[in-house]
Specification:
Structural class: mainly beta
Organism: Riccia sorocarpa
Largest sheet: 5 strands, antiparallel
Distance between the termini: 85 Å
Radius of gyration: 36 Å
Protein name: Eukaryotic translation initiation factor 3 subunit B
Number of strands: 45
Main location: cytoplasm
Subunit structure: Component of the eukaryotic translation initiation factor 3 (eIF-3) complex.
Mean pLDDT: 84
Low-confidence stretches: 1-32, 46-65
Number of helices: 7
Strand content: 35-45%
Keywords: Cytoplasm, Initiation factor, Protein biosynthesis, RNA-binding
Shape: extended
Helix content: 10-25%
Length: about 725
Amino acid sequence: MADAQVEQMPAAPHTLAPDNVPEPRVQVNIDWSQVDLDSIELPEGEDFGILSDDDQEEEEILETNTGFGNIVVVDNLPVVAPEKYEKLEGVIRKIFGQIGVIRERGLWMPREDGGEGKTKGYAFIEYTTPQEAQTAKEQTNGYKLDKSHVFAVNMFDDFEKYMKVPDEWVPPEIKPYTPAENMLAWLTDDRGRDQFVIRFGFDTEVFWNDARLGKPDPVYHRSFWTESFVQWSPLGTYLATIHRQGAAIWGGGQTFNRLTRYIHPQVQLIDFSPGEKYLVTYSSHEPSNPRDTQRVTLNIFDVRSGKVLREFKGSADDFATGGTGGVAGVSWPVFRWAGGREDKYFARIGKNAISVYETETMSLLDKKSLKVDNVMEFMWSPTDSILSLFVPEGGGGNQPARVSLISIPSREELRQKNLFSVSDCKMYWQSSGEYLAVKVDRYTKTKKSTYTGFELFRVKERDIPIEVLELENKNDKIVAFAWEPKGHRFAIIHGDGPRPDISIYSMRSPTNVGRVTKLVTLKGKQANALYWSPIGKFIVFAGLKAYNGQLEFYNVDELETMASGEHFMATDVDWDPTGRFVATSVTSVHQMENGFNIWSFHGKLLYRLPRDKFFQFLWRPRPPSLLAAEDEAEISKNLRKYSKKYEIEDAEQYNLSSAQDLEHRRKLIDEWKSWVARWKQMHEEEKAFREDLRDGEPSEDEEDLETEEVEVEEIMKVEEEVISYGFEQE
């Protein structure tokens, strides 16, 4: 075969990446006339000898099926005579046909005497999909046909796996211990920097945010690391990636070694528990019958061991109640975790019930769900095992809507508020669990329009008092609402025009401790989103998408604007976990200006990083501080004393950067001088040649040369035209 150069981008498997990320293109530079196609031999294996990037990390033996994954084996069937064969076959088809479609000639019960005698007490059933077979195994294993016959159902693939088990136990090979990287080492960065991860095209990059240098400091880069998206765990310990076979987590501050795999084929979504002890994975599968809904599988894994602790399966309709978002009509996250890092409870909403599970047993709390008729939505307190739930009006409007607070595990109702003429309701918890705001949309008396008000719960106070807040113009549309993290203030964007107003309120103030107080209303702002600093005090008013990326950095303590800026076509705004920096980004929803900007908390643009096909930016979360609240208050009080150290370091870094810049400029000047010297030498070496071109004239000084002007005539165009003088006779 003639020499050929092939440039090929590895084909990426089906992913959840944004629609505007193009499929890989293959460029082939081959003269096909010189190719002997009969001499081409492809490497063995389905992958043609090309290992995926994930397989090259670590050779592991994964369990794979043999191609018979849609077949189940049913044991402990009645042994019947030939005349009762058809009756038993009908019973088996009726039981197993309810679960999925049995293929034509897909039920076989072996018989004695060459297939003419009694049945042997077991059968093989072939479904159209492996998912149906798996469901049949789960739902019918242990099924009691009668007192003497209890089904034992297994997957056909399992038999070959068990047959390969050796008769004698062989001790496993003990691998030598290799110390792993400290998972929290990144928190000890001597410059106190934070990390972030970005996704663009098929690449993933992790950076340090180095504001002193005015650019990001690369940490890790990898192509085809994930097949859709990446996700940090809530405390920043792990980075999760998505693959066809399941999910994986990686850790460290520099190397990002793979720690654990979670086998869940065709996984689409994942969710960590707040304390990083558990991982929920989600997938959906098309049904064999087009009239049926999609089948959904949810697994709950132990993060450290990778073991499945609980599996949930059903139709998409079973998991579509409550909430918004998700895929295939399923609200996400399906399971919501109780507040705090204990990861003690998780819950999901169902029809007329909220199912609360204990993680210790992975079973229902008290073996029963919390019955709540017509429950529409629920949320956990971010810090406590308290549920807030919303029930709409019932009985044709005769039963009022209500919001309730319920303590878990006692199921005691702590507080209830009845609401009338309710159109819709949305709940907002403050991050410390001290306050709950309920936005209530109510019908007017004519039922032709709605207006909005807020019910404000003081959850940590005695008897949980409730205040009602109505805007000056009750008909204003609520564009956005956001609590100050760890604080007592909240902001609202309200209004119907292109320039709505922004109002900031406080749940307490020096003059009015027990009542909500309006601090300020800012008129006519180009904003449709609110982003509080994670430490409070500062907020960014952002005009995203249709507002073309208008940004206003506001100091709520001083009630003044610190700076205004613009990131054209910005789609996202993200504060870093320390509240020192803000990232604004343009994802590949737009076809141009993709990339991100980093700003200081007071609105100074520090640097930009453009990236084509950019679609994900995530700061690495930090775990909560180990300092007590009193210690943090003492540091804040004496901040100037502590800041001197960092001011000295900043000055040293500035001087170092200045010295590096001077050295760089000096190097450029030296390179320029060297280049000029080379050209002067070349000019001197070619002197004789140039003199020969001047017919022996030695001087190259223009003043010594004689200038002679020569006029040259040149015919540009010739045209013939008949001119009439008026003497022609008619």
